[in-house]
Amino acid sequence: MIIIKEDFCLAPFNTFGLEVLAYELVMITSTEVLHELFKEGKLKENILVLSKGSNILFTGHFNGLVLLNQLWGKEVIVENDETILLKVNAGEFWPSLVEYTVENGWGGIENMTDIPGKVGAAPIQNIGAYGTELKDVMVSLEAFNFNTGIIETFTNEDCKFGYRSSIFKNDHMHKYFITSVVFKLTKNPTVNLSYKPLAEAFKHKHISEVTIAEVSAKVAEIRASKLPNPEKLKNAGSFFKNPVIDMAQFHNLKLKYETIPNYPQKDSTYKIPAGWLIEQCGLKGKRDGDVGVHEKQALVIVNYGDATGYDILKFANYIKDKVFEKFKVRLEFEVNVI
Ligand code: EPU
């Protein structure tokens, strides 16, 4: 029998700590629960899959059915001398998964140490940090289709991964519940030091001497020095994506701001750190009541106390407007606004 909770407070399930209610909520502890809900016709509309809530902004109560992802468990499905294929259920906590793989000496996700969130949410926005993205290590995933009640397999290619995006943020948005993800990890890892501060940290060593445990520890240290821990200060990581601009606009900006940080892309466009743009507007550390731009990383908006979702959205739009006024660059939200 399915237990449906009503008017359930979502404060523990969103890292902005917003005290919004879900009209209805079901704990998804097995895929059977999804099948039962489907049979009862409960998965027709107004459904929200919620995991850790580390990339979501609620602007009010959620007037539908929340499916709380609690699918635990992981297993090695293939192992040979070089490779491990690890199938991980969607409710596993991402930082614990990274710790587990590093402890086992399996390389692949160590650069993504401590990204707060759950495994099932990771492919949706193709999480990434310090030189690695989920798409670099994901083989396939399984997802329950709300329209058909069938669990489908998506290959890496099927997911149409892009920078902080996938098919689940576009055509298939709110249409699937990701139930598990398969990762390809290596038993003989070569570390990835493509992120400059990481290369800098290990410059006294030959790359072959650097271990994944050392990389993971260094990433944890870099993160802790810049990014607020949501358990201590309420936030949802990068609030904005780094915008991508065309060559003409980049050259114009470069004439005016010689030191503008930039990452040239394959298609002759340029990715510009949103944190830099926001900081140049004088907004780093800016606070309005209980909402503010983080003091050490301008990409992050924090809730210092009792800000509402509406306060946070208003503040984020204010930042967007200021950046557009100064640079004529439009920022996009990375967090999902509900
Ligand atoms: N910068 C500033 N001011 C700031 C922040 C950054 O000038 O307040 C400049 C830095 O000087 C640096 C550049 O921006 O030159 C890049 O900064 P950083 O390496 O910290 O990375 P980011 O582009 O700001 C992205 C991701 C982070 C990820 C880091 C490291 C996005 C939206 N964010 O930030 O991801 O941890 O790279 O790989 O792509 C997240 O998605 O929640 C997240 C935190």
Descriptive account of the structure:
The protein is an alpha+beta fold and 338 residues long. It folds into 3 domains: 5-69, Uridine Diphospho-n-acetylenolpyruvylglucosamine Reductase, domain 2; 74-226, 2-Layer Sandwich (Uridine Diphospho-n-acetylenolpyruvylglucosamine Reductase, domain 3), CATH 3.30.465.10; 234-337, Uridine Diphospho-n-acetylenolpyruvylglucosamine Reductase, domain 1 (Alpha-Beta Complex), CATH 3.90.78.10. Helices cover 22% and strands 27% of the residues. The protein has helices at 31-39, 94-103, 196-201, 212-226, 247-256, 274-280, 309-327; strands spanning 5-9, 21-28, 47-50, 56-57, 62-69, 74-79, 83-89, 128-129, 132-133, 138-145, 151-155, 176-186, 234-238, 244-245, 263-264, 270-271, 287-288, 291-293, 300-303, 336-337. The strands form 6 sheets. Strands 6-7-12-10-11 form a 5-stranded antiparallel beta sheet, with no helix packed on it. A 4-stranded mixed beta sheet has the order 1-2-5-3. A hairpin with a 2-residue loop joins strand 17 (287-288) and strand 18. The protein is globular and about 65 Å long. The mean pLDDT is 97. Bound molecules: uridine-diphosphate-2(N-acetylglucosaminyl) butyric acid. Uridine-diphosphate-2(N-acetylglucosaminyl) butyric acid (EPU) is lined by residues 129-130, 195, 226-227, 237-238, 241-242, 261, 273, 275-276, 279, 284, 297-299, 334.
